[in-house]
Amino acid sequence: MVERNVTIGVEPGLQARPAAQFVQKANSYSSEIFIEKDEKRINAKSIMGLMSLALAKGNEIKLIADGPDDEEALAALADFVEGK
């Protein structure tokens, strides 16, 4: 299991199109992937869960991945969220 705190750098945050792209990317990995914000943990492969967090640019979140490709998944998703 790997964890990483990241700050959202994509405009306008993980809403609408960026959220859909994030979920699509998360679903390309076999690891379980979660996002934590303010003590709330959601499955990062769920668009409804992601939208429920209302993540805006500048928010800090924790990405958590656990599985056979967890490090690769975490690195790719962190880069996406940070806008790299």
TrEMBL record:
Domain (HPr): residue spans on this chain: 1-84
InterPro entries, sorted: HPr, HPr-like, HPr-like_sf, PTS_HPr_Ser_P_site
SUPFAM superfamilies (UniProt xref): HPr-like
Superkingdom of origin: Bacteria
Family recorded in the similarity comment: Belongs to the HPr family.
Annotated protein name in UniProt: Catabolite repression HPr-like protein
Originating species: Gracilibacillus ureilyticus
